[in-house]
Amino acid sequence: MTNKTTPLTLEKVKEIAKTYPTPFVIYDKKAIIENMKEFKEAFSWVDWFKNYFAVKACPNPTLLKILKEMWSWADCSSMWELVMSELVWITWKEIMFTSNNTKYDEFMKAHKIWAIINFDDITHIDYYKETVWFLPRISCCRYNPGPLKKWNTIIWKPEEAKYWMKREQLFEAYKKLRDHWVHHFWLHTMVASNELNPEYFIETAKILFELVVELEKELNITFDFVNLGWWIGIPYKPEQKKVDLNVVSKWIKKEYEKIIWTNREKPLRIVMECGRMITWPYGYLVTEVLHITDKYKQYVWVDASMQCLMRPALYWAYHHITVLWKENKKNTMTYDVTWSLCENNDKFAIDRELPKIDEWDIIVIHDAWAHWTAMWFNYNAKLRPAELLLEENWEVTLIRRAETLSELFATVNWINWFDYR
Questions:
Q1: Within 10 Å of residue 130's Cβ, how many Cβ atoms?
Q2: What is the DSSP string of 17-51?
Q3: Is the confidence at residue 416, as pLDDT, over 80?
Q4: Cβ contact 349:313 at 8 Å
Q5: For residues 227 and 205, what is the distance between their CA atoms, to the nearest angstrom?
Q6: Are strands 95-98 and 298-302 parallel, antiparallel or unpaired?
Q7: 3-state DSSP call for residue 196?
Q8: Which residues lie below 8 Å from residue 47, measured CB to CB, with a gap of 6+?
Q9: Mean per-residue pLDDT over the chain, rounded
């Protein structure tokens, strides 16, 4: 089995910890930029190819600014995500507003900054019109292929999902949009998450390309863009292989030429909303070992908790662990890696084979960029840790400071005089 590597060394972490104590989250800026370049190059054949990064994956303005510089815009699903994107000058067509249970004020905000509206349900079209008084110039609808599409364990069966429109609803929705003087149409689907099989993405593209042709012929409309969704997975486990973007792109191009160029003269532009594969492999949770205990099992107790990384508790998800300075030592012990929350699922690893661990060892938990800072919480009154950026020159920038007790008490009326700093 191959192993995973980290750009962090024990000496570097100890240096960082003098200013920013563990636990902390750190992102590798250089690796993110290089990965974005690779992604863009793979789909260079697509005219005006863009990626709408899912802000919910990692809602930090500094990271959004970096991604914008690398041609990746914002896919938003809430008021706060819209505001955050606007604050870093991502506006207008640079935002795709994809939500599934939307309040009127969120639609109004999306309208004011000229975001592309991605309707999740046919009833939302009339709701939007009643809220804003007219429909958006650019309108998109989300398609649920139901049993036509295979499913994976994160999204489950499309026909059991709360998202998207059925096929017959989709035709009705675009007819409604057309009849209300909408002239620019997009189509979207996203029926998988963390998928590693390249055939899945090729099949999805084929379904959408064929659907575009059918909609155009039946409704006499023209589509400008198709959003392939595509939450491409990453190899969490060392033995898993990274998705080859060049192979995926090559076969997508073949389907595009066969379906799109055969049936229409105007090119159909392609966008995506990848989040996980762009940034996730380059985020690390750094935590220090506090105790080693021997009960019915061997436990490694660290100073981070599932409050910092929810995926193992939610999905029993695997996240690779590196023990700094012991990278080349043999895995001779079996541990549960855990912390002190009053929940027994507060574990980063269960029955994990690792080298012998000692108190004060530094552990790095891999692939911890997306959907972890966004899921942080304060159970047991635990505080959120700092977020750091490892710059290309090896310097470290603070992009979100650690939470304080004062902030934890800030919304409690009777204790507003109580100030911990």
A1: 10
A2: HTTSPSSEEEEEHHHHHHHHHHHHHHTTTSTT-EE
A3: no
A4: no
A5: 9
A6: unpaired
A7: coil
A8: 267, 269
A9: 91
pLDDT at 371: 67
Contact 344, 361 (CB under 8 A): no
Q: Residue 327 and residue 322: Cα distance in Å, rounded?
A: 6
Tell me the pLDDT tens digit for each residue of 131-168: 999 899 899 999 998 766 555 444 457 677 778 899 99
Distance CA 121, CA 170 (A): 9
* Separation CA 191–CA 400 (nearest Å): 32
Evaluate if residue 185 carries a pLDDT over 90.
yes
CB 112 within 8 A of CB 90: no
Q: How far apart are CA 390 and CA 380, in angstroms?
A: 30
Query: For 262, what's the count of Cα atoms within 13 Å in the CB-facing half-sphere?
Result: 12
Rounded CA separation 65/73 (Å): 9
Please give the Cα distance from 81 to 163 (Å, whole number). Answer: 19
Residues, the chain: 421
Amino acid at 5: T
What is the number of H-type helices and E-type strands within the chain? Answer: 12, 19
What is the DSSP pairing of strand 50-54 with strand 396-400? unpaired
Residue with tokens 């910092």: 308
CA 18 to CA 10: how far, in whole Å?
Answer: 13
Q: Which pLDDT score, from 0 to 100, does residue 154 have?
A: 45
Q: What is the 3-state secondary structure (H, E, C) of 359-411?
A: CCCEEEECCCCCCCHHHCCCHHHCCCCEEEEECCCCCEEEEECCCCHHHHHCC
Task: Find the radius of gyration of the CA atoms of the chain.
Answer: 23
Q: Which residues 6+ apart lie within 8 Å of 377 measured at CB?
A: 307
Nearest CA-CA partner of 249 in 67, 46, 54 = 46
Q: With residue 206 as reference, give the H or E element that holds it.
A: helix 198-219
User: Which residue is listed with tokens 């969120």?
Assistant: 106
Q: Report the distance separating Cα 313 and Cα 310, nearest Å.
A: 5
**How many CB atoms neighbour CB 213 within 10 A?**
17
Please, what are the domains in the chain?
29-278 (3.20.20.10), 280-415 (2.40.37.10)
Assign residue 92 a region (left: φ > 0; alpha: ψ between -120 and 50; beta: otherwise).
left
